Hints:
Elements: H1 5-8, H2 11-22, H3 29-43, H4 49-55, H5 67-76, H6 82-88, E1 98-100, E2 109-114, E3 118-126, E4 129-136, E5 145-147, E6 150-152, E7 157-159, E8 162-163, E9 172-174, E10 180-186
Antiparallel strand pairs: 1-6, 2-3, 2-10, 3-4, 4-5, 5-8, 7-9
Helix pairs in contact: 3-4, 5-6
Amino acid sequence: xxxxxxxxxxxxxxxxxxxxxxxxxxxxxxxxxxxxxxxxxxxxxxxxxxxxxxxxxxxxxxxxxxxxxxxxxxxxxxxxxxxxxxxxxxxxxxxxxxxxxxxxxxxxxxxxxxxxxxxxxxxxxxxxxxxxxxxxxxxxxxxxxxxxxxxxxxxxxxxxxxxxxxxxxxxxxxxxxxxxxxxxxxxx
Length: 188
């Protein structure tokens, strides 16, 4: 099965549904061992810890997941197949952790992270603009500014344009493999 962008966009929802069934957010490597065992107990089918870590963005994703692996995850989450998830959720509200720019005040600090060890701290400037105040292992640099409407846990961050002192940069995507893995706000 070759996945299209619409189906790939359902990965955060599938991760959310699996975590709801598991009744625990996957945050440590040990969580993936327990999840792998729970999936086997509930479905009779095995998914490796490595696959689960890649799908959640804790290890680099080297290729698209197989249909059979997505079907096992969907089955664990209560669907017959991954296609059923796609058919049932092609256009629905799905509550996931997020930070919306409209809910922030200038001076608030936003922290984001993505695989493998990227961490960026942003200062909210107002009008949906942010300035990078700290950057670890990311292509974003201190002083970069950009505008986004918000951040969605488990989804990649798309920045249409970065304003840098040396000149404007084209669009940038963070978290292509697994999306953003952490979000936090410090109100100023």
